[in-house]
Fold:
Amino acid sequence: SASDDNIHAKDGQSGTEPEKGQDGEDVTLTLETVSKSAQKMILVRATTPNRGVIWDEMYSMDAVPTVRWSSNGGDGGEGSSGGNGGNGANGIDGSDAMPPDIEGSDGGPGGNGGKGGAGTNGADGGNGGHITVQVKEKDLYLLMTVDPCRVRQNLLLGGHGGKAGEHGTGGKAGNAGNGGKPLTILVGEGKKKKLTISGGNEGNRGADGVTPPWDLHNGADGRIGSFKIEVVDKPDESYPGIYDISFENLHLEGTSPMANPSDCEFGDIISIRNIKIKNKGQMPIPKNQEIHFSIKDDEHPNVNPLIARKDAFLPSGTICGEGESAVSEGELRFFSGFPGEVDDDYDFDALTQKATLRIQAFQYGPIEIDGKVRNSEFKREFHNFHSSPEENVLILSYAIGSEAPLTAKENGAVINLRYPIENSDGIKALRSLSPGEETLMSFNLENVGAQPLGGYDVDSIQSPRRLALRCFYLRSRKYDLPVDYVHFCTNHTDDQEGKEIDLSSNPVLIDVPKIAPGNTHDCKNRFSLGRETPLYSRMALIVDVFIQSLPVPKGIKVSMENYDEDDRMPPMSIVQRRKIEFICEPKFEEKEGSKIVLVTSLSTTRAQFETWTKFVLTETLNLEYEVFSISRYGTLTPTSTLENGKTICDAFRNKLVIVLTEKFKENERDDEWISPLRLLPNGCMQQISGYDPSTHWLLVGANDAQIKQQLQSHLSMPLERPPAFPDIASFQKSIQSMVHDRAILGRVQVELPIREYSINIALPPTARDSNAPQKLKKAAESLADFLKHIDPVNQYTVEYSADLDFETEKKGILKRKRTILTVRQGFCRTLNSATCVFGKCTSEPEQIKSDGMIMSIAEAMAQEMRIALLVDAIRNNRSESVIKACKFAIVSDMIREASVFLDSEMKMNEDLELSFTSIGTLLDSVEMLSLLRDCKTWKELKQNVGRELTDLLARLEMVANSKDLRPRFSLLGTSQKKATKEAMIEIVDRLRVQWKSVISQTDIEGIKQDLKQQVKVFLRENTGNKTVNYRAKGRWLQGLNYVHSTENVSAFGAANSSKRLIELDLFAQMENCKIPCPSVRVYSSEEMKKITDELSYGKERCRLVENSFRLKRQFLVVAPYCSSEI
Structure:
């Protein structure tokens, strides 16, 4: 075998030892005041044990530098790494076997890997040095020049320990040599035999090199050094650190004192006295020198320092040890400045600003007195007087009309700048006035200062400061009420008549009588409108509060006005501004024959109101109307009583209530907007509203939140204890029975209450606590699917508990968790009493006058009212848009009635007029029968009637014979489609018979052909297919519904759309113009609580608003004093 000592690898080299960090020097600093050539100088000397004197300088008092000295230890050296061991050589292969009989040799061994070299540990860091400051007692103030006294961090640190090295890794072993290969040969004569000569064996593999087994560590950090102060002429006194002071409080005193000590008046000269400080250092304050204070003059624009009569300072001799406090002598003064300007069209509170008053503290050296001024050539500031470096304090700085927080690194004394008078609750008055009405105006002024204000006498030296109100009308496009219709006067009392104030041209100043400190004066005036004031015109009255300005100190220039024609009057400063907007709104007055109530608010504009009343209701529809201002009465509660003694419910009976839903504010400065629909405590749906079923609603401009609130309003209704069912199966059986009874009756009850059911439910025995809520949710969803299928007429909600508070029952050896599902039956689609107009710009006159809005009104009307409107429009040859809207709304009603029967599979009532009230009302209409009779003697009328009734009958026949109700092949039996179709054909045939004297069958067929094309075009566009299966369930009725709805752009434009409120329950999921079934929703108990809490809040808010408006009516003056007819 092969063997050779050279096959083994060499060992790695070991690392070298690092050096320890150098220790910091010990330094002695000497500070001393010396006299040189009759001038006081400061000696600064530094010595070390090894190098002796290293700094020896003399400085003048005003030029001494900050002495900075550090004595940190050096960092320890890093350990070095050992070398890696070499890899062993591979063994030599053995020789192969050879004939005739030489065997192969063995392979050589592999070489050993070299050992890894040993690394070294990191060296220790050097220790921090020791600094000693030596100073005499009289020179302790010089400690303010030494940097280690002020900030000791990072000046005496020990050095960092060196990082440890790493061991070298051992080398890899060499591979073994291969043995020689064997050889097979043939031997012998004739038939030869095979002979195998054996090969050599494989050699041994070498050993891997060894890595040193011990751990290496970093060097230790050096120790922190020390610092001390020695008082050389008092050997027993030494201190670990310097003195330092911090601000605690101060006393402010102005020429116009305020009730609150932290308040100062704008434009005042404020004195600062009794500055209290605290020694937060580690030694007493030097008693031989003084500490002086000044105002930092760049902290706030309203803090302007003035030259004081004398300084504020801590006098020499003040004893203030560590942790003790002391109070300054003398005073500082500053001018508090004035607030910025404000816009005219702005209502703002009394002007206030928070200013940060930051005091600076300085250590003085030897004092020189020049008259009353105390000065020193040596000054050093206490930089952390208001806060420590680690603090970061939030200071609030207020701009006029807003609050803008600013972050400051250092705190100060926060003072409130304001005037000593304020109005805290605005102008109290009735904002909504009808023509000829007058309101009392109350304007409270509170004296928050410490001196009397008002009752100014120009001829009296001792007169209190002048206080006045400046009143004027705001002029803008928004405020269009002519001043000729407005009257403003002072309030009359038993012994003094009110005086009318002319604000038509210029603002007027009204002096305020004397108000004692802490007292309030109520300034009362009256505001009235002339009897011919245009409705929904507006006027804004501005009331400014002015106070006599304080004298301005010399050297400060401020532009001031006296706002008075009398030059003897003093200059005035504005304190605050109040604005109140008056709107002319009518009282609610019932009119005989009125069928419309227009609900308006403070948000209703004059253009909007006049478009509704003059163009739409009067000129276009020819309907008598009434106006109900929600912002005048503050409620739509049906039981609330009006001035005429009637309840709102009685006043709205048999009428269409058009609600303009724009939100409004009770007061302009309120944060919360009021939605008119929120003032319906139980919503507007017939089943719970509290209104008579004959009252219908049109909600103009309702947004998603308002619609959602109306559709969920029944969820917060308290109900009697719900019937309990032992399991889901028994509940399902009860619902099936209810649906069956309704199907037999052939119609929904007119008075259908909201119902609630409680269902016990047992979860499977395997349900764990962790997945029980999920299983319960699935059970609720399964029940919801059942309700959706079995009863497509009513809303439902299924509520399940999402927590784990289940009741457990034993069933043999198994445990089942029991809980409750709560089901509430909500609104019914056949009892819908409201229609919504939604879209953009529903308040714009052009949209109000659109054909789509006329169609929305017709849709929302009760069927009897709509037919009366149709008859009147045909008889008097009125706008075609009105006739079209009424006809389309009748057809739309019939489509919905058909959909109810098709979805619910109800049987037809024996009296078809009860099943299809849209046709039954037409058949029984007295107005329609009268119109038909008049056609016999009035030829021109007969032509008009024949044209319109022919068109209406053609459309009704299209619905009755809808393609999706006709099977492709003849079917046995009576399917729901067939029964519905036959019933509609029968009742429409009754109309045909009644109208036969005026209709034209030829024209009917032509209209139907045109209508078919319109439906086909819509269905092709809606499905995106050229070929459409018109007989698919509900598809042809869907097309007919589109043609007769506001979605039909060709008929009504693209302005706004209207839908019946119940159909918006699933509007987001609704197929275009397909009539949806009411929703069945599943809620967890937490989700349901959130909904009901929000609804309950709305009801409480409704009650509070109603009370607030009722209380405001006390400001209404029943017998106007200064109102006059115009």
